[in-house]
Amino acid sequence: MDMHSVDPVVLGTSGVTAADVVAVARGGARVELSEEAVTALAAARGIVDALAAKPDPVYGVSTGFGALATRHISQELRGRLQRNIVRSHAAGMGPRVEREVVRALMFLRLKTVCSGHTGVRPEVAQTMADVLNAGITPVVHEYGSLGCSGDLAPLSHCALTLMGEGEAEGPDGAVRPAGELLAAHGIAPVELREKEGLALLNGTDGMLGMLVMALADLELLYKSADVTAALTLEALLGTDKVLAPELHAIRPHPGQAASAANMLAVLKGSGLTGHHQEGAPRVQDAYSVRCAPQVAGAGRDTMAHARTVAERELASAVDNPVVLPGGTSRSSEAESGGGRVESNGNFHGAPVAYVLDFLAIAAADLASIAERRTDRLLDKNRSHGLPPFLADDAGVDSGLMIAQYTQAALVSEMKRLAVPASADSIPSSAMQEDHVSMGWSAARKLRAAVDNLTRVLAVELYAATRAIELREGLTPAPASRAVLEAVRKAGVEGPGPDRFLAPDLAAADTFVRQGRLVAAVEPVTGPLA
């Protein structure tokens, strides 16, 4: 990661954008606190300090946590209380979570801290920014979040680093004790005060960060899927008449219209489409070809809903309890002269968990229809004149037979990953936290699904480009020719005798993953929707 290679992201009190999250998580953008944020932090801290000085117990300030919230904590034990919640909650297990996920997690927690609703001191917020800017990434483990009361264990491992404890990865990729890394970058460990330990742990930041990055990846992949579907339609000598705008206008789903328009743009000028009445005539193409815009479009509309949820969450301040300025309320837990601290349930991850699961379902279906199209290209009985398995000398050569096996295995795995995590709940904390969202789990499996979808589309691309090249005497569309030229330059070889296929498939995967497939067609088609 090239740290600070993009413009800095300045945090205020009103949330961040999806682009901000991606810039920090993936681009290494520098994070800065605005004067507005520092003022809000100080004001909220003043409210917490005033409440801490009073004899009345206030949750998160002068009490225990969760099922232990009934104990009033004396002033001399409150610093220890805040340290202890971080240490005890940093209980994750399993493999390490990816660096970009941890950076998104830290950045989004800092976003909420800067809202002025958490009571964290400005110097703690600045330390959070300093750790991000130094390229220090806490070691966070796969398991430890139920998606309610926030992503507790993952956030605790991040907070532990702020205290100079636990392990973290430096900008060089080496894992070292967090205290050593902080010292090497001139960052002083924080000494937590009332409410700060709890405020650093209690958010849906991990699942939200993964949602934002998945949406960024899926936006590219849905465009890529429109391109591969068009290439397959062309290779199968299908008809593009089903893509006519007037057909999609009478069922006005926005995503469907966008996908159809993309496919039509890719196919413009093709000499392969429209031959479906020749040889063995067919009235209609198979569903996997003809209904490609309807399936991809439904996924696009699912993304639009998920994006709305993400934008709301990015504008939110998720903590419990929260600091509110001025006034009183009938549900008020505690008040100071300038504000109050109140408990709430905003940490529940259900809104995010649902759309994470919905996206995994849509991704699995997109992969499924792409695999069916690929299979048609390889089946001599359904490919309308192509050789079996697109082999050079079928029987001696197996062609792409096992490439489709690999694709089928990926699709099968994606169907398992589409089983909703958010339909589950398991009680914890002595039944105080008796219903949870499992949003972190939904996010983790969506990341795996997005990864596999990329591979599935790469296999379709590999098969479709080979099939088009085997249609001798027919001229593909200009956009298709641009793809063929770009993909061959990328190291994905064309038709010929059997060879070691894994390198070709890996090159096709990289080609799709890096956005080069979409980049290859857009100079011809214009920007895809």
Structure description:
This protein has 529 residues and is mainly alpha-helical. It folds into 2 domains: 9-202, Fumarase C, Chain B, domain 1, CATH 1.10.275.10; 211-315 and 348-522, Fumarase/aspartase (Central domain) (Fumarase C, Chain A, domain 2). Helix content is 52%, strand content 6%. The protein is built from 19 helices and 10 strands. The protein has helices spanning 18-25, 35-52, 78-89, 99-113, 122-133, 152-162, 178-184, 196-199, 205-235, 245-249, 254-267, 287-290, 292-314, 350-378, 401-417, 439-470, 478-489, 502-513, 516-525; strands spanning 9-11, 31-33, 93-96, 137-138, 141-143, 167-169, 175-177, 322-325, 334-336, 339-342. A 3-stranded antiparallel sheet has the order 4-6-7. Helix 4 crosses helix 9 and helix 14 (350-378) runs antiparallel to helix 15 (401-417). The longest helix is centred in the last third of the chain and has 32 residues, at 439-470. It is elongated. The two termini are 29 Å apart.
